Each structure stands twice: as C-alpha cells, then as structure tokens.
Known about the structure:
eight-stranded mixed sheet; two-stranded antiparallel ribbon; 8 helices
Amino acid sequence: LEVCLHPLVLMNISDHFTRAFANRGCPQRVIGILVGTVSGRNIQIQNSFEALCANTAEGTKLDTEFIAKKLSMLLEIFPNYEFLGWYSTGKLHERDMLIQRSLVNFNENPLYLVLNTIDPPPKESEDLPVELYESHVQVMENQTNYQFKQLTYTIETTDPERIAVDYVSRAGAGTGEFSEYSSNLMTFLSAMRLFKKRLLKLVEMVAGNSDVRKDQKLMRKLNEICNRIPVAPFDRLKDDFNQEISEELMTTYMAAMSKGASHTSELLERFDFIAMGRDLD
C-alpha cells in the first residue's frame, strides 16, 4: 500500500489546532476527516475538513450525519474524491479504535492520521511528528481484536501547494518577510527604478549640453536607444491598467464572499448541532 500525504492536509490540521488553542486558551484535541483519491494501491490524501464531535462517558463520538452532509457537498466540487479516514491531534489512544469503528460505514478500513502536538520533536530529527495507521484485525480464541497498525507514507506536492508552502514558510502573511513571488516583483521594481534613473540622466545630459546635441554620432546612438524602448499610448496603458485592477478586485471580492458564505454555513451547522443536542436533553 502506497500512501502519499499532501502538505495541504497538514496545513489544515495545524490551522484547526491553532484556532482551537486560540479560542480556549489551552491545547485542545481536534478531529477531522481525510479525503483524497484512490488508484489501485496508491492513496493520495489531498484534503481534509473539520468534524463535529461530543465527549461522552464512553469516549469521543463523531456526528456522522454532519460528516455525510459535508462529504456530499465536497464531492459535488471534487467528484473524484473519496472518504479516506480521519485525523486527530495529540497522541494515539486506546479509545481511538471506537472512533475508527464508527466510520466503517464510510470506509471499510479508514486511515487514521495523528499529529503529535504533545511531545516536542527532537532537535536533530527531520521527520514530521505525523503517524499514519490502519485497522488490523486479529482473531484469537474466537475473539476478534482490532488494533492499529502503523503505515509508512511519503510527502507529495503539486505546483500550487509548493507556492502555498513557500509562502507560509517565509511567513509572507504580514511578518515582514516575502514569498518567492513577492521577491520576484521587488527585483523587477528595482530594475525599473534603475532604468528610469539612467533614462533621466540621458535626458538631462542632452537638454543641458548643446555640444552633445551637435554630435550627430552620439545623437544617432541615443535615437537608437530610444527606439528600442517599447512605448504604448497613455490612454491605452491607462485602460489596460484599470481593467487589470478591476479584474483583480473582482477576484478578491468573489474570494471574500465565498469565504464568508462558507463560514456562515459552518456557523449555521454548529447552531443546528447545538439545538439538536438541547432537544435531545
């Protein structure tokens, strides 16, 4: 069995754990669902989403109706995705098998990803604090025992994920550092400023010195340099610039509206879950 884990999943789990920690002021165990694609014996864990759960005397119980609803919505956008398993933070616990068995309706043998947020990683180790398990069945003396069996995995990234990981690793979201894309823009801007400075120097040299204007060889050289510079009409340049700005703003507005609608949908689902719990009480 070949399992490939994508960085987006780890980013989602880390974000889930960080938000739970910020809301309650102390580390909290978070649980979610893993989705991706399956091709033969190759499994691609490509995305994840948060799951609603409740702590009972028997252990943590997941809201399977919420998972089914969320999964159906996700499959409408990504029809090639499948339910692969679930994740949690902290460390592996014996009661986790109860959650594992509660998800067999979605997958006969769901995967279980554990992000260790308790033990600090060794300083010299380059391994991620991530462990992956599957269910292992043992029949002894007419008794069926379920145990977790650890699996090996590899990290696989796509081009969009590489850009996102690079942006996060460079803390480009407001800490003063720049992503690779921002660095390229800064390099281009510096080159344009240097070009403008040298061009103004040439204009100043020609306008302020009559001897230079009388030198036909030098003027032909300057004319050759000017002809190499692509010049666009100001009105056309202004229209293209305004159109590009409008498209970028429209994309930003659409992204903000989509994100707001998603947050609103999650909030309403949580209210429904809380109201359902009160009705049962």
